[in-house]
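User: Show me an example of a complex going from sequences to structure tokens.

Assistant: Sure. Here are the input components:
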Amino acid sequence: MSFAFMLAYVIQRVIQSALVLLVVGLVAFSMFRFVGDPVDNMLGQERTQADIDRLRTQLGLDQPFPVQYVKFLSGAAQGNFGVSYRQGRPVSEILVQRAPATLELAAVSGFLAITIGIGLGVFTAIRRNGFTANAIMSLSLIGVSLPTFLIGILLIYLFSVELGWLPSFGRGETVQIGWWSTGFLTESGLKALILPSITLGLYQMTLIMRLVRSEMLEVLRQDYIRFARARGLRDRAVNFRHALKNTLVPVITVTGLQLGSIIAFAIITETVFQWPGVGLLFINAIQFVDIPVMAAYLMLISVMFVGINLIVDLLYFAIDPRLRADRTKAH
Amino acid sequence: MSEPILSIRNLTVEIPTRQGILRPVNGVSYDIGRGEILGVVGESGAGKSMAGNAVIGLLSPPARIAEGEIHVNGARIDQLKGDAMRRLRGKEIGMVFQDPLTSLNPLLRIGDQLTETILAHLPLSRSQAEERAVQALDEVGIPGAAERVNSYPHEFSGGMRQRVVIALALCAEPSLIIADEPTTALDVSVQAQIIALLKQLCRNRGTAVMLITHDMGVIAEAADRVAVMYAGKLVELGPVREVLTTPRHPYTDGLMGSTPLASRGKDRLHQIPGAMPRLDSLPQGCAFHPRCPYAQAQCKADPAPKLNEGEGAACWFPLPHATKVA
């Protein structure tokens, strides 16, 4: 594939992504008009109408909706999401402070979901009539059907309350590296990661596993797998080099979307485990009608979704040479 | 003839089913010598491919070898399992599949598919294996082999892909090639080229070939001897000229009569009445008797005589002496 074509494709996708973000911003922003009036929460019981009006003008809430939206966009484009109504600090500062907790949690869950999911998927496909494989498949139904919060509560009950092995809430001790606070470097930080990341990743793990399994079963029936065996290649080469690679295009599509939702659905896990990340921040912001925080959070999540989708599209080209060829011919 | 490369004795493949045990290959015996091409013909379901899969150890369960022996280069292989059998595949026995469009992995460069096969069997370094891959492509007549090793399968035409498949089957220099309908999926114009290539490569290397096909033209073109299969059994075996011009088994005769030939003019094409019986409802006696124009009482009662190591026809009343029953 020519480099110029690749560049043109990326630019085209980036423009599309920007449009998606604009629409997300518009929808999110118009929804906030219905969650309540932030001014109610910000002023005490003994407020006067003059106080309310003054605060409205100060926050720009007296301006028409389109003006507010354009102001928000122009600020957001420069990384300025305004000031949190509740904390009185710039939203970008709060997000930077909170993001590492969520990103570390999501990274660990995503890693667990992908490695264990693909590993078990391949295993259950190769040994499709084995006892262990069937047992794993039955257990995976539980992972698919149990709601996240319930899994979290069950894990807390078992490992924190009954066994007392792992903490039930919080991040443990963290170490500050520049602006990034990490829980990877302390024992309590690592211990604190275990339960929330299992809770968050279990659903995605079982989903990836079942997908990999069904794709593998399909691919293992193909002629080129029989031919690979007929050439005397080792089982490992046949299963992983030949079969697994051919299952990757659909698997990457779903996995990409799942990674996006790991970050988005961290809200529930973070609430269950009182994990000090952006999800918990968002939930608290809703209660307080902290519009700048909510808007910034939604924009952040949509940037991540759009970014992951772009990466997924580019991965297709990396994996499947047929896509490259067809595109080059077409252009 | 010196010791045969492949020797099959009384090979029986069984598939257990709820209705009973099916025998898609039933007591088949034949040899293939060095540099010899044995054509295996028969209708779909006659057991041609199943016998080939049994030899290379790729029967899909629950099908299994129930009886008989398979020897390759004098060593018995039908009882080998797992890794021992894997080592033979590609190294001693190569296989060419029917459809070149589906038998190459679409995501791997053909050079990589060649080198991985070479490295799996031969004690070579990676760069030596790569050199050999280019050589293998060159030998099957792919122009510009040195650049083409970096191409993906979709960048080749059907005929070229079948050349690649042949290169893959031959790259570790096996002494036996099982070619399962190697030309069926190709254009007629390409078929002759592929057959000629296969023939020439095997002649030069002394590779034995089991050429499975239902195309009598391909047999006439390439094979030295012919084995005719019907309902899992070998019904006739002999040198290609004899079998094609003076078939002795009535089934072979019918098969020859139903092959369209330009020299035969525009008369109605002969056909064998009826269809090959299903494996779960084989008739008593000779499996062919319900369709046989020469069938006698004995054919209905007794199983056809066994055609063992010798050549000839497994028939109570072989042609040309049999008389038609009205």
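The lines above are the inputs; the final block is the predicted structure for all two components together. The longest strand of chain B covers residues 20-32.
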